[in-house]
User: Which sequence fits this backbone?
């Protein structure tokens, strides 16, 4: 069995601390996403490859019962819903990123606009993981793999050093 690096476990542990170990509610704060399967637990952590073609785990595995409802983690547009390499796959574009879900039976067609928390599929059995059934949830921006759990944290904006200094100055009065 492959050991997960510490960096792969940091975000799931942080999310657990922030959410009390539970999925954010459907009425999460604006900008925050919801877990695609209510009550699911992470049994396979994100472990990006060092090089694009290298070994790694390009998403997270969420343990849940086969037949569980899969919901959109954020608002978006379904860009693919069908069979790929013998399993059901759904791709959801939200802004500059896209989430991938497998194995699923799609409940919405390609081209459908969906809202955060809206059912988009049903979990099928068949993904190799540490539980009887798992949803593999991936996230990409362009060709770069990202940790999909970051969608649960809300929007992150990076400030320039000058903007950060100006904010700090204002805060001090």
Assistant:
């Amino acid at each position: 069995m492959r050991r997960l690096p510490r960096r792969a476990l940091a975000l799931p542990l942080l999310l657990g601390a922030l959410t009390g170990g539970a999925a954010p509610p459907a009425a999460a704060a604006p900008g925050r996403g919801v877990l695609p399967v209510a009550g699911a637990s992470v049994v396979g952590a994100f472990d990006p490859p060092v090089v694009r073609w290298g070994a790694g785990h390009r998403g997270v595995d969420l343990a849940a019962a086969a037949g569980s409802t899969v919901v959109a983690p954020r608002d978006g547009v379904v860009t693919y819903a069908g069979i790929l390499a013998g399993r059901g796959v759904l791709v959801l574009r939200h802004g500059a990123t896209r989430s991938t879900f497998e194995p699923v039976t799609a409940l919405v067609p390609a081209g459908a606009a969906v809202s955060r928390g809206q059912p988009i599929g049903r979990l099928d059995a068949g993904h190799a993981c540490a539980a009887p059934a798992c949803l593999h949830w991936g996230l990409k921006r362009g060709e770069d793999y990202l940790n999909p759990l970051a969608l649960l944290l809300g929007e992150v904006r990076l400030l320039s050093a000058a903007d950060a200094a100006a904010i700090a100055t204002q805060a001090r009065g």
About this structure: Residues 86 and 165 are 53 Å apart (CA to CA). The first helix runs from residue 6 to 19. The two ends are 55 Å apart (CA to CA).
